[in-house]
Amino acid sequence: QAPQLPFQGAKALARAQAPERVAPGPGMRLSANAAPPWPAMVTFAAFFRLLWRWQLLPLLLLLPAVAEGLRRGAHDGGGQQLQHAQLPSECGHCQGPGVVDPFQRDNEYCEENQGMCACCLQAITDEMSSICGHFGVSAPCASAIQAAIEEKERQCEHKQALDEWNKAQDRDKVNDALGANSPYHTSFATAWSGRLNSTGFVERRFESECAAWHEPSCSSYGPLCGHDDGCNHLLQDVEMEYKDIKGFHGLYQNLPCFGR
């Protein structure tokens, strides 16, 4: 009867008696009875169980999305192209988060910007209609506000006429001091209308998103970037009208009356 070996001794004896497994080198072939190298013995299911245990499988599933995000970021200075368009204060409730999701599809990105543009277009139209409603007309109403300013000037002139005896000499002094800028030489509304119209240009809010070089690009997305009826173009037109109306309305509210 073979002597009983201690536990450690039995393991050492088993290792000594086991055939040595050598990985095949270049030009070598495995015999039919040879044990395969250890990586081939790991099954596909065991490999995935190992990844799941080490919590690596979710990371592997995210790799394609991460690679796409890095590609977009490298295309345009580290992802600056994903900043939302800057909208006017009247559209503050339309503005989404500061940046968009870099992993969303191009059509989702364009739809999100289209939603912001449509919201802003409606907000400015409502503001313009609200201002024009005070003058009993529908938008656009810049000419109606100009007429109201001229009427307010006439009312001021009537008030001034009541005090004419007290300011006749002062008027001459103002004319001499201010020359062509004197409020008595020209209509106040006429003088200011040129200044308002000269600064009436408004940029297109979604110009970058509609550019072909932008990544992602919405240049072929008609609802946002169409040349004639795209929201980006319509918003620019409405903003230009609203800018004039807002300026004239502020002028009407703050028009000074030069009577004493």
Describe the structure.
By secondary structure, this protein is mainly α. The protein has a domain at 105-253. 55% of the residues lie in helices and 0% in strands. It is built from nine helices and no strands. It has helices spanning 7-17, 44-53, 57-75, 106-133, 142-162, 164-178, 188-198, 222-225, 231-253. The longest helix is centred in the middle third of the chain and has 28 residues, at 106-133. It is elongated, with a radius of gyration of 39 Å. The protein starts with 6 loop residues before the first helix and ends in a 7-residue tail after the last helix.
Q: Sheet with the most strands? A: none
- Count of helical segments? 9
In helices, the fraction of residues equals: 40-55%
β-strand number = 0
Helix and strand succession?
HHHHHHHHH
